[in-house]
Amino acid sequence: MLRLGHERSTVAREAEGMVREADCDGDGFIDLDEFMRAVSEGGAGVDEEEELREAFRVFDADRNGYISAEEVRRVLAGLGRRCSLKECRLMIRGVDRNGDGVVDFEEFKAMMMMNSLRAL
């Protein structure tokens, strides 16, 4: 049980760090422009694929290779955002290309790349 609690706090710290890094105006939230900037800039000298995998792992709490609506809700809650499970399912549906109800890494990557292109 301690280990599970430790993993949750690690995920929360990672998510908070990601928000702090991307939050250019310091309001504690990431707006669309800040998100797009963070995705398009990536890290200097850091492999983009690995950056995407790290971001994916923040959401994939059970490490099964998929992001569920429940996992999206947990991350958003950790960031102080209240979101219903129904709303999270709608978010998943918008990214879920194969219709299995979850987001795999390739779907996540495609979404992030598409958002990056839209920012240009």
From TrEMBL:
<dbReference type="InterPro" id="IPR018247">
    <property type="entry name" value="EF_Hand_1_Ca_BS"/>
</dbReference>
<feature type="domain" description="EF-hand">
    <location>
        <begin position="10"/>
        <end position="45"/>
    </location>
</feature>
<comment type="function">
    <text>Potential calcium sensor.</text>
</comment>
<keyword id="KW-0479">Metal-binding</keyword>
<protein>
    <recommendedName>
        <fullName>EF-hand domain-containing protein</fullName>
    </recommendedName>
</protein>
<dbReference type="Pfam" id="PF13499">
    <property type="entry name" value="EF-hand_7"/>
</dbReference>
<dbReference type="InterPro" id="IPR002048">
    <property type="entry name" value="EF_hand_dom"/>
</dbReference>
<feature type="domain" description="EF-hand">
    <location>
        <begin position="83"/>
        <end position="118"/>
    </location>
</feature>
<dbReference type="InterPro" id="IPR011992">
    <property type="entry name" value="EF-hand-dom_pair"/>
</dbReference>
<dbReference type="InterPro" id="IPR039647">
    <property type="entry name" value="EF_hand_pair_protein_CML-like"/>
</dbReference>
<keyword id="KW-0106">Calcium</keyword>
<dbReference type="GO" id="GO:0005509">
    <property type="term" value="F:calcium ion binding"/>
</dbReference>
<feature type="domain" description="EF-hand">
    <location>
        <begin position="47"/>
        <end position="82"/>
    </location>
</feature>
<dbReference type="Pfam" id="PF00036">
    <property type="entry name" value="EF-hand_1"/>
</dbReference>
<keyword id="KW-0677">Repeat</keyword>
